[in-house]
Target: Arylamine N-acetyltransferase
Amino acid sequence: MNWVERFLERLGQPKEAPSYEALAKLCRAHLTTLPFENISKLCYFQQYEQTGWYIPPIETYVANLHDLHVGGTCFTNNSTFCLLLQQLGYQAELVRFDSNHLGVSVQLPTGWYYVDVGVGSPVFAPIAIPAGGEAIYCGTGIRLLPKEDVADALRFQHITHGEVTLEWELSLQKGLTFDDFSEKIKFQNTPGQTFFMNTLRCKLWQPDRGRSIALVNNTLMIRTEDGVEQKSQLPDQQAIEEVIAVEFGLPKLPVREAISVLESLDIDIFAPPKQAE
Model:
């Protein structure tokens, strides 16, 4: 079985001819099966001197989907998803942002579409570009809007309970390669520079249970379809591992190893948040 077949097997999806409907099924399966997490990112960072990469080769990534229940953050999840789509016959390309993010655009007979399985938002179906649209579930998500007077860019808004909490610029430049993101990937893996190098993070969409579930350090957050959020503090590493195994359904995810990496960087995920001065 090659890596494409194993990737589809992990997603629980058959191999289908490219279409909007097939693409939407792949997006939804990815977001509801593979976590948006930095646990594997921290482990890959620790192994960098031996491997020479922060994002694994596609064969290693797909093996770890099965063996470690990993997903990744944006650069890992979206770059590997783009490779999968290309192998399935889609015209898929990487998308650049002014912020530290990477997305994917796909050309179908009806036009270009944006997909994103690495932003921690419920982009369950492709969004037409440049027309735009939104993807909201459990009170959170993203919105794409045309950018006034700029033909080759879009506004990419993060939405929480109807309010814009963050805005990026998405470039419609074509022909980008993975190497074009090397500096951003290096920055993303520099301790002390980004959120994902100083925290423990895991998120998964569970529409079959009417909710999304997220872990940030030792805080567990469950949002339901009506936007209600429940928070609880997990007391220790064992409790985190149990939640990841039972509530997330990812018992192989290397939580203990990731916490150890953070500890080596002098980060205590159980420390109370610092109060703003």
Observations:
- The longest helix spans residues 20-33.
- The domain at 3-264 is CATH 3.30.2140.20 (Arylamine N-acetyltransferase fold).
- The mean pLDDT is 95.
- The longest strand covers residues 163-171.
